[in-house]
């Protein structure tokens, strides 16, 4: 994987050092399947924690960034709530705000809607659509084929840990070359 032309794993044919990988990771925002919010912290505390400790922002600066990120995901009104008081979709939107608060160059989403019901899935996908419209670079692992087709510039279909096929969304969804992708799309509704 290349981030701005830089391999995350290898440099000059050799594995990167831990310090090098950590430097690159600071520019990546990650949203997991599970929300991974700290239950003993409010929404605001969850979103300001990393900018304060990893980026060295003051409380005030971290709060300003957090407010902007929570507003972006339509969760500013829940800033003082604890995660247990939020729906799954709300928790995932807070997780997105938390990742955005680190001001990443690239947002990574690992099946961000897999544990949500259809209504909550749509809430999260709407936020992700907004990010795509705003030009946020995202790498998304998803089974939401309509979403992938709608917002992607480039799609990769993986099978058995390898890239089976890749290209523009229209090409992959309309004229898949591999039999495995055709089978998947026929079952996934793509």
Please explain how this structure is put together.
The chain is α/β, with parallel strands linked by helices and about 190 residues long. It folds into two domains: about 30-145, 3-Layer(aba) Sandwich (Rossmann fold); about 155-190, no CATH class. It is built from eight helices and nine strands. It has a three-stranded parallel beta sheet with strand order 5-6-7, covered by helices on one side. A two-stranded antiparallel ribbon has the order 1-2. Strands 3-4 form a two-stranded antiparallel sheet. Helix 2 packs across helix 3 (about 60-70) and helix 4 (about 90-100) packs parallel to helix 5. The protein is globular and about 55 Å long. The two termini are about 25 Å apart.
List the helices and strands and how they pair.
Elements: E1 2-3, E2 6-7, E3 10-11, E4 14-15, H1 18-25, E5 28-31, H2 43-53, H3 59-72, H4 88-100, E6 106-110, H5 118-133, E7 137-141, H6 145-151, E8 155-159, E9 162-167, H7 169-174, H8 179-188
Parallel strand pairs: 5-6, 6-7
Antiparallel strand pairs: 1-2, 3-4, 8-9
Helix pairs in contact: 2-3, 2-4, 3-4, 4-5
What is the helix fraction of residues, given as a range? Answer: 40-55%
Regions with pLDDT < 50 over 5+ consecutive residues?
Answer: none
Rg value: 18 Å
CATH homologous superfamily of the largest domain, by name? P-loop containing nucleotide triphosphate hydrolases
Name of the CATH architecture of the largest domain: 3-Layer(aba) Sandwich
Encode the helix/strand succession as letters. EEEEHEHHHEHEHEEHH
Overall structural class, as computed from helix and strand content, comes to: alpha/beta
Within the largest sheet, what's the order of strands?
5-6-7
Largest sheet: 3 strands, parallel
Tell me, briefly, the overall form: globular
| Percentage of β-strand residues | 15-25%
Number of strands: 9
Mean pLDDT: 92
CATH topology of the largest domain: Rossmann fold
Tally of contiguous helical segments? 8
The N- to C-terminal Cα distance equals: 26 Å
Q: Just give the CATH class of the largest domain.
A: Alpha Beta
């Amino acid at each position: 994987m290349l981030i701005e032309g830089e391999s995350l794993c290898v440099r000059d044919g050799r594995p990167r050092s831990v310090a090098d990988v950590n430097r690159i990771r600071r520019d990546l925002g990650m949203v997991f399947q599970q929300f991974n919010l700290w239950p003993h912290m409010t929404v605001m505390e969850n979103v300001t924690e990393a900018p304060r400790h990893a980026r060295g922002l003051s409380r005030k600066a971290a709060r300003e960034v957090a407010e902007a990120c929570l507003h972006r995901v339509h969760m500013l009104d829940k800033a003082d709530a604890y995660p247990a008081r939020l729906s799954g979709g709300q928790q995932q939107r807070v997780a997105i705000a938390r990742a955005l608060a680190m001001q990443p160059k690239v947002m990574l989403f690992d099946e961000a809607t897999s544990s949500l019901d259809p209504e909550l899935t749509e809430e999260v996908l709407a936020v992700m659509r907004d990010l795509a419209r705003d030009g946020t670079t995202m790498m998304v692992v998803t089974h939401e084929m309509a979403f992938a087709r709608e917002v992607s510039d480039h799609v990769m279909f993986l099978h058995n840990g390898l890239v089976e096929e890749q290209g523009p969304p229209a090409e992959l969804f309309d004229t898949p070359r591999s039999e495995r992708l055709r089978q998947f799309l026929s079952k996934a509704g793509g």
